[in-house]
Design goal:
15 helices, 8-stranded mixed sheet, Nucleotidyltransferase, domain 5, 6-stranded mixed sheet, about 400 residues, 2 domains, alpha/beta
Length: about 400
């Protein structure tokens, strides 16, 4: 069974093709084809394709849908061909960032589902429209091949009302203004993977999962469920991020509006011109921040210190909500690759008996426990595999009679 995964982010489009049999494999298989579009600006992107061969192509003056069509053509044409034609695809799984209150699990896409994804675009303007574009392009190219929406909000949908309700007027709830949480596909994958690595039942673990990429969020996982998370009504809340501010005093926004700032200007400021990039003036990329610090750049140093301050404060809140912690999980670009960030967190948790093994931490660990043997808290680095999680959910939705309940 050939399952195509489309994972549209705000600045990239990742895609994988999996060849799955009658049962899901216990370990994540290697996709038979993977491709990525990285957008440099509105109409220019780099296309990278990996099969046995590797192909890189610069695309200029091109629309998103035309670029996606080029990406798909490499599946069945040219040196990276892995299938005879698009008819060989049996199902398509899409990451959809915002599922609102109604979608608490993955679903086969119908006209009603599409309408809801479109309606929720106002809450995730950088993501849901791109997700919808992919769905509609697949309809044009593949006709009636079933498509599945896998929602980034679903894993957090069982959080208790005390965690999801904002302390504004009660009527906000009737307007759907509440904490939804995001990165749920990644948080859920990492929770299950952590239990595997520790050889323990997920139901008995208290986990703080740190998804630290360009977007950053934490989740508190207890009994296998997300009981709290840092992102909120939108993916802008919580931690300081690559270009997003994270939590700021809402009074600042009122102050700026009174000075004449428009909603669009505030949106640009908070989503694109803030965070590591806004403070450092260098980049949203952690590696470039560290290079600038080494050259004596004071703003880059401030950006790093603020980022770590925000991260530690929010981890503390998650641990309090859990009533203790068995493991801290680091994942995504910064979480998986920035040893200095993991060290800083480990040092701050020393009062709980947490100890990081410096040699393990510096050795580019993947799916590994980097805590010392005597550490009271396990410290895990996990390579998040959102695309595999999406493929599995797609497979399950298309094989409803399957008794396979793996994760």
């Amino acid at each position: 069974m050939h399952i195509l995964v489309l994972n549209a982010g705000s600045s990239s489009q990742k895609s994988e093709l999996y060849d799955l049999g009658a049962a899901l494999p216990p370990e994540p298989p290697t996709p038979i084809w993977s491709a990525q579009l990285d957008w440099h600006d509105a109409d220019a992107a780099t296309l990278t394709v990996k099969t046995g061969d590797r192909l890189t192509r610069e695309l200029a003056k091109i629309s998103r849908s035309a670029a996606l069509s080029q990406l798909l053509s490499t599946l069945w044409q040219g040196p990276t061909q892995v299938i005879p034609s698009l008819e060989a695809i049996d199902g398509v799984g899409h990451r959809v960032v915002h599922g609102g209150q109604d979608y608490r699990a993955s679903v086969v896409i119908t006209p009603e589902v599409k309408a809801e994804i479109a309606r929720l675009s106002c809450l995730a303007p950088n993501h849901n429209p791109a997700n919808l574009e992919g769905i509609e392009l697949m309809e044009q190219r593949l006709g009636d091949v079933p498509q599945v929406a896998v929602f980034d909000t679903a894993f957090h949908s069982q959080m208790p009302p005390a965690a999801t309700t904002y302390s504004g007027p009660y009527d906000w709830l009737n307007q759907g203004i509440r904490r939804y949480g995001f990165h749920g596909i990644s948080h859920q994958y990492c929770a299950h993977r952590a239990a595997e690595l520790l050889g323990r039942d997920l139901a008995e673990l208290r986990l703080v999962i740190c998804h630290l990429g360009n977007g950053c969020s934490l989740s508190a996982v207890k009994g296998g469920h997300s009981i709290d998370t840092t992102m909120g009504f939108t993916p802008l809340d919580g931690l300081m991020m690559g270009t997003r501010s994270g939590s700021v005093d809402p009074g600042i926004l009122i102050h700026l509006m009174r000075q004449g700032y428009t909603a669009d200007q505030l949106d640009q400021m908070l989503n694109k011109d803030s965070g590591l990039k806004g403070i450092s003036g260098v980049s949203h990329d952690w590696r470039q921040i560290e290079q600038a610090i080494a050259q004596g750049n004071d703003r880059a140093t401030l950006a790093r210190d603020m980022y770590l301050h925000s991260l530690k404060a929010h981890i503390g809140a998650m641990i309090m909500g859990l009533g203790g912690v068995d493991a801290i999980v680091f994942t995504a670009g910064i979480g998986e690759h920035a040893a200095s960030v993991r060290t800083a967190v480990g040092d701050s948790l020393a009062f709980l008996g947490a100890r990081i093994d410096a040699a393990k931490n510096d050795a580019s660990p993947v799916d590994a426990d980097i805590a010392t043997a005597e550490s009271t808290v396990r410290m895990l680095v996990i390579h998040t595999q959102e695309d595999w999680a999406i493929a599995k959910d797609c497979w399950r939705c298309l094989n409803p009679k399957s008794q396979h309940h793996g994760h």
